[in-house]
Amino acid sequence: MPFIIMDEIEKETVTPKYSTAYGELVTGEQVEVGRLRFEKGYGAVEHRHPHEQIVYIIEGKLEVTLDGETAVMGPGQGFHAPPNVPHFVNALEDTLLISSKGVVDGVGHRI
Questions:
Q1: Of the candidates 17, 12, 18, 52, which has an alpha carbon nearest to the alpha carbon of residue 36?
Q2: What is the pLDDT of residues 20-32, one digit of tens each?
Q3: Do the beta carbons of residue 92 and residue 64 sit within 8 Å?
Q4: In sequence order, what are the beta bridge partners of 56?
Q5: CB 45 within 8 A of CB 51
Q6: SS3 6
Q7: pTM score, whole prediction
Q8: What is the predicted pLDDT for the residue at 1?
Q9: Overall CATH class of domain 10-102
Q10: Which pLDDT does position 65 carry in this prediction?
Q11: How much is the pLDDT for 87?
Q12: Distances (CA, A) of 104 to 28, 56, 57
């Protein structure tokens, strides 16, 4: 799939074991990108994974705790979660973000 139209990709809850993130995923051989949404008051419980992850917030506001350090982040901001570092998020507002994860053993966000 060399060309991507996010609005035509089926939405899904991407990591229901850890998170309420809902949206579209595009998976390559080494990288997976998601356009994901969190509703206010929801997020992801503390978890860790072998995937490196970078998150960029488009709209809304997240409280992010990464390896014990907490920050409130909004549009134009984001965070980098290195492999196996504990992190969690809580949406302070309805939030839209881009999440990029490395693919490990054929798996990205769907852990």
A1: 12
A2: 999 999 999 999 9
A3: no
A4: 78, 98
A5: no
A6: helix
A7: 0.92
A8: 55
A9: mainly beta
A10: 97
A11: 96
A12: 11, 21, 24
**pLDDT average, residue stretch 74-103:** 97
CA torsion sign, 98 to 107 to 65 to 39?
A: positive
- Percentage of residues in the chain having pLDDT higher than 90: 89
Six-digit token string for 79: 């965070």
What type of residue sits at position 106? G
d(CA 92, CA 75): 13
pLDDT tens string 52-73: 999 999 999 999 999 999 999 9
CA 27 vs CA 41, 65, 94: distances in Å: 28, 26, 25
The answer to whether 73 touches 98, Cβ cutoff 8 Å, is no
Domain boundaries, the chain: 10-102
Locate tokens 């579209």: which residue? 24
Burial class (CB in 10 A: 0-12, 13-18, 19+), 34: buried
| pLDDT for the residue 2 | 83
Task: Count CB neighbours of 60 within 10 A.
Answer: 19
What would the two tokens of residue 50 be? 């072998």
